Amino acid sequence: GVEYEINDQGCAWFPKPINLDRAIDSDVNDLAGSGQVPLVLEHLRFFKEHIVPGVKIGCPIAVGPLNIIDAMLGADLWLLLHDEPDKIHVLMAKITDVIIRLVKLYKEVLGESLSTAEIGPLYLARGGVKIGSDSMVMMSPAMYKEFVQPYTERLCREFSGGYHHSCGYYPKHF
Fold it and tell me: d(Cα 151, Cα 164) in Å, to the nearest integer?
């Protein structure tokens, strides 16, 4: 629902910060037909059809809602957490809904259970979502508990558990 560009490495990114109200009001109704989702679905279908028997294709990792709004709002996010916390929660909830819908769509295409996940050579027998949350290391544990944990817990409830990944040092947050 918001404008993005594809960089030289083929990754989607937001070239300039997006206004918080505009992000909240963005249209996210047609997920399967918008943005990069059709391309992801095409690739998932291709690999599912052409992969060597016995090799599993797992659902892509879900970039966590905090990472997404960090990319969308840029450095403004860190001020908005203090100045507009209620709006940040609205946007976090909206993005969490989108992540749930996307993961369900990807799992449907792959024929993967909602409550299990493939992570490289690992199999999660209980937990169907992989959540990337690198931006959390830039906030205090108290801010994490207020602004990230409720949405991570919601994702994990929806998929009977999950796998949480961060490239940073985060034990103090748990």
Answer: 12
**CA 18, chain centre distance (Å):** 18
Cα dihedral 27, 31, 37, 39 sign: negative
Q: Residues 127, 156: contact at Cβ < 8 Å?
A: yes
* Predicted pLDDT of residue 95: 93
Pair 59, 107: CB distance under 8 Å: yes
Which string of DSSP letters, residue by residue, matches 51-98? SPTT---PPPPEEPHHHHHHHHHTTHHHHHHHH-HHHHHHHHHHHHHH
Strands 122-124 and 117-119: antiparallel
pLDDT at residue 125, as a whole number: 83
Task: Give tens-digit pLDDT for 45-90.
Answer: 998 899 888 777 778 877 899 998 998 898 899 999 999 999 999 9
Q: Given CA atoms 82, 75, 32, 155 in this order, what sign does their dihedral have?
A: negative
- The token duo for 83 is 């100045």
